[in-house]
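Notes continue from the previous slide.

Worked example: a multi-chain complex. Inputs as given:
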Amino acid sequence: MILLSALVLGLLAGWGWAGWHKRPYRAPDLRHLWLAAASFVPQIVIFYLPATRAMTPQWLAAGALMISLIGFLVFAWLNRGVTGMPVLLGGLLLNLIVMAANGGWMPISPETASHLADGSAIAHVSPGSRIGQKDVLLLPEQTRLGFLADRFLLPGWFQYAVAFSLGDILVALGAFWLLAGSSIGGQNETE
Amino acid sequence: MNKTLAEVVLLSRRLNRQHLQVIFAVIALAMLVVGVGAPSDGGGAGRSMMGMLHHHIK
C-alpha cells in the first residue's frame, strides 16, 4: 500500500509538471513489459490466490519468491537507462540480498512487529514464524544483515502502521522518480 | 474535408497510443513495486495484525 502511494504521487507529480508546462504527460519508456508481468505470476500464485496459497509449502513459496525477484531484477536491469530505475534497482537488490540471506523471507524483529500489532499477540508467535506476506519473525541475533530488514516505522501520529526496509525506501523513491521524472526529463530534452 | 478527417483519425490514434503507453507503464510499475517491496503492513488504527499471523515456517 505504501509503495503504491509512491507510484500515485509520482504520477500526480508528473502530470502536474506536464500540465504546468502545457505539455502531454510522458510515460517512462519501459521495455520488456511482459517480463514484469511474468515475474509477478509466481507471487500471485503463492500470495493472492487462496487455493494455491494454502496448498503451497513454505519452501516452495520461498523459492518461487526468489525466482520472482530475480525476474524483476532482470526487468529492472534491462530498463536501467530509464530515469529513476537505478534507484529502484538498488532497492530491489538490497531486499533480494537480505531475503536470500534469511531463508527467502524479509526478517522483522519482535520489537518492530509489536508496533504493528498488539504486543501480546506477537508474544505468542514463535521466532521463525511467517507473518504477513513476505516477512518472517526473527530475533535480532538470528537475523543476517539486520540493517537491511524491515526495521523502520512511520511516525506515531500516522494512522497507518507499517514497517519497511532500506530497500523499500529506495524502491518507493525510484518508483516516484520513474513516473515523475519521465515527464520532467521530457521537458528538459526540448529546452 | 478528407484531409481534416484523416488528421483527426491520426490524432486519435496517437492519443490512444500515448494513453495505452501510460496505462501499461503504470501497471508494470505497480507489479514491480508490489513484487519487489517487502513492507510489513499492520493496517490502519485499530486493525489487528493477528489475521496476518497465519503462516508458519516451523
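Summary box: Chain B has one helix and two strands. The mean pLDDT of chain B is 74.
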